[in-house]
Amino acid sequence: MENDYRIETKCIQSGWKPKCGEPRVLPIYQSTTFKYDDSDQMGKLFDLEAEGYFYTRLQNPTNDAVAAKITELEGGVAGMLTSSGQAANYYAVFNICEAGDHLICSNTVYGGTFNLLGTTMKKQGIECTFVNPDASYEELCKAFRPNTKAVFAETIANPSIVVLDIEKFAKLAHDHGVPLIVDNTFATPINCRPFEWGADIVTHSTSKYMDGHAMAVGGAIIDSGNFDWEAHADKFPGLTTPDESYHGIIYTQKFGKAAYITKATAQLMRDLGSIPSPMNAFLLNVGLETLHLRVPRHCENAQKVAEFLNGHEKVAWVNYAGLPDNQYHALAQKYMPNGTCGVMAFAVKGDRDTAVRFMDSLKLVSIVTHVADARTCILHPASHTHRQMTDEQLKEAGIAPDLMRLSVGIENVDDIIEDLSQALAAI
Ligand SMILES: *Cc1c(COP(=O)(O)O)cnc(C)c1O
Fold it and tell me: E strands, 125-188, where?
């Protein structure tokens, strides 16, 4: 069985399956539209009666092959690509939440997701309660309301590096009859497959490790097929009652385990249109072919860098779950025994200006907004993404003014450490 191949084999072989005489390498179907011989064939596609391609906003063979690969890597039943990680998280939630609904989200999620759920979706009538992911099960239960439709969290939070107790969150969601959506961007399916711990839907910003080369912004949504929408039919009418915009089909009845992704494609892609270009999906696929080689190397390098920084007299603190004294070490050992990711947070002793002088002294490590690609890079939120905030405001937002986010790449680790070392000597 193909699904039994090991994950390294899936990185290379899953997705594009050429038939006799077809290209061995995934072709880029750079075409908006697809040709049919008669009008009836095309009509069946519009009725969702037959499978096939007609317009790239809905589906494209290059995009679908890459979505199929990520679906196999995560161990899901259906998946789709989106134009960005932001679009993936938006669709994942909006597919099951509408005006008047509520969801619960970890307060450590990526800033973009925090804004999306806390501000933008609020304008659409969807309310979000942000919770401390480390709170007890009993405490977290208090956040639920009768109209709660989903729980959302990140496997490893960006940039605070908080590791999620996935089993606790899955139980919490399921005990209240709603699915758990997990953004698995930082761990990747190489280090953690949230479905194995009870998550129902996984999202990705493929812009990070999956692409791995910082070439293409993209996202993905994968469904485990495990959540029983019909058992909670009153909560999810969009999936369990007729869709008038598709001649009254009922997604759960017609598509079974593929209901959630089919609805997201047929309704949300149709109406909102955040598709990736086939060219970007092709680039993502090239990245995925070496994901299983790159991720362990990122972790190995990051572990050595974290140990170096942790032992340095000019370093105030290091937050990396691979360090034995880290608050999240035990959770990381349970969910990600082979390593977490290449990203860590740390601070040098001194003030905001000391951090700036340290960064300006770096030669190999570059200052960029991106994280989680092949090149080692660093960002100081207080000077960059959050520069309009005072130290007090930063602390309120849970970001230490001295916090630097270091994303360790796959260069030779000795060169990375030597660069950090000379910059530390300069302060
Ligand atoms: C970057 C990121 C996103 C947003 O993804 P884009 O591809 O930049 O839109 C969402 N979640 C996490 C965890 C991220 O790191």
Answer: 127-131, 148-154, 180-183
Q: Which of 158, 274, 368 to mutate to test the pocket of ligand 1 (most atoms within 8 A of CB)?
A: 158
Q: Where are the alpha helices (DSSP H) in 223-290?
A: 237-240, 251-255, 259-263, 270-272, 278-288
- Residue 186 CB coordination number (10 Å): 28
Mutation test residue for ligand 1: of 108, 181, 185, the one with most atoms within 8 Å of CB: 185
pLDDT, tens digit (0-9, with 9 covering 90-100), for 34-92: 998 888 888 888 787 888 898 999 999 999 999 999 999 999 999 999 999 999 999 99
Q: Within a 10 A sphere around the Cβ of 361, how many other Cβ atoms?
A: 16
Per-residue pLDDT tens digits for 111-164 = 899 999 999 999 999 999 999 999 999 999 999 999 999 999 999 998 888 999
At 158 the three-state DSSP class reads coil
List pocket residues of ligand 1, CB cut-off 6 Å: 84-86, 89, 110, 112-113, 154, 158, 183, 185, 205, 207-208, 217, 219
Q: Which residues lie closer than 8 Å to 353 by C-beta, 6 or more apart? A: none
For residue 308, the SS3 value is helix
What the chain holds in terms of domains, given with CATH numbers, is 2-287 (3.40.640.10), 293-425 (3.90.1150.10)
CA 329 – CA 161 distance, rounded (Å): 11
Could you tell me if 418 and 304 are in contact, meaning their C-beta atoms sit under 8 angstroms apart? Answer: no
How far apart, in whole angstroms, are the C-alpha atoms of residue 6 and residue 71? Answer: 14
